[in-house]
Design a protein that fits this description.
This protein is α+β, with helices and mostly antiparallel strands. Helix content is 23%, strand content 13%. A hairpin with an 8-residue loop joins strand 3 and strand 4 (92-96).
Length: 346
């Protein structure tokens, strides 16, 4: 977590956080150093794209360079769907471009490579783009809380940390990754269906409060990724196991049709989280259910200000990434990787 501050500095930072105006991402000025890094990563991605196919057509596997860690990307076709439900009104038409999505949640196997540079052999294979990136400070606690690492989903990170992981992975692989928007997440979860999984079949697809208990975690816990059935588009654990960050600020829906919508951030809270978790009942395990992030997810963090990297009370929260078929502008890449306001308003 972040380093401790002296009492006077902490009070000053707290005062600034409470009184400073919040900027929308469209108005917030670009940091020149960060923009130079993003521009460099985009150039790398463009060069790599010249050598590979760009349209999502089949699943493929990626090995993170200089490691044995792999993950699989599944194609999600372009299309239109009716977003929302009777409980999440108004329903509205959304049209999306094609993208790939990780078939599983990001695992500790991958996330620890980001947290600790020596695990990804980055000290042996220096890369100026990777070296320039922001990374988590060492946590005070073991962040899996004894729940398991190898093959299990990474948990308890802030949205800022998830965004920075996406930037790091982009620099490592030469492919552009970011969090999915709410619309992309729901569309991928539905996988062409207009209905939810029937309650009688939920155990086949999801780990949740009813079936996630295992010794010594008798109150429930996460499980290894991909141990339940995938949806029609080859995506595992979209429901249950861990809730998943999206890129969007949590906000009321509008009725107007939208194309590739992204509700850009203007405040630290709330952001939209999807999918339900091992700790939730059936009501939250639908493709349409929405959860707003909350500052209480850092309740046990003793620091002031709170960590920008860890959410100690969110042991049911993780994420997965998407790779859009169309490479966005360098400005949109910057916004996606620096989304929201990292400093909490307290």
């Amino acid at each position: 977590m972040t380093s401790r501050l002296s009492p006077l500095v902490a009070v000053a930072v707290l005062a600034m956080a409470m009184t400073a105006p919040l900027f929308s991402q469209a108005d917030k000025p670009f940091d020149p150093k960060e923009m130079a890094t993003v521009t460099g990563i985009r150039s790398l991605i463009e060069e790599r794209a010249k050598k590979t196919a760009s349209a999502p057509s089949a699943a493929y596997k990626v090995t993170i360079p200089n490691t044995t860690v792999t993950y699989t990307m599944a194609p999600v076709p372009a299309g239109e769907f009716l977003m929302g439900s009777a409980d999440n009104q108004p329903q509205h038409k959304v049209r999306l471009g094609a993208f790939w999505m990780q078939t599983h949640e990001v695992t500790w196997d991958a996330y620890l490579m980001f947290m600790f540079a020596d695990q990804a052999k980055e000290l042996e294979h220096r890369d100026p783009l990777v070296d320039a990136l922001s990374r988590p400070t060492a946590p005070f606690l073991e962040m899996s809380f004894g729940r398991g690492n190898s093959g299990y989903p990474a948990i308890s990170m802030t949205q800022h940390a998830a965004n920075k992981f996406a930037q790091w992975l982009s620099a490592k692989t030469g492919e552009y990754y970011r969090l999915p928007t709410e619309a992309e997440w729901e569309y991928a979860c539905r996988a062409g269906s207009t209905t939810s999984i029937p309650p009688g079949q939920l155990d086949e697809y999801a780990w949740y409060a009813k079936n996630s208990a295992v010794a010594p975690f008798t109150g429930g816990t996460y499980h290894k990724v991909g141990t339940k059935q995938a949806n029609a588009w080859g995506l595992y654990d979209m429901l249950g196991n861990v809730m998943e960050w999206t890129l969007d600020q949590h906000a009321p829906y509008t009725a107007a049709p939208a194309e590739n919508p992204w509700v850009r951030s203007s405040a630290p809270y709330p952001h939209a989280v999807r999918g339900g978790s091992w700790n939730d009942d059936e009501a939250r395990l639908t493709c349409m259910a929405r959860v707003p992030s909350d500052l209480s997810w850092k309740k046990l963090d003793p620091q002031l200000p709170k960590s920008i990297w860890y959410m100690t009370n969110a042991q049911w929260l993780g994420f997965r990434l998407v790779r859009p078929a169309t490479l966005p502008s360098v400005e949109d890449m910057y916004r996606a990787w620096n989304n929201g306001v990292a400093l909490d308003p307290y």
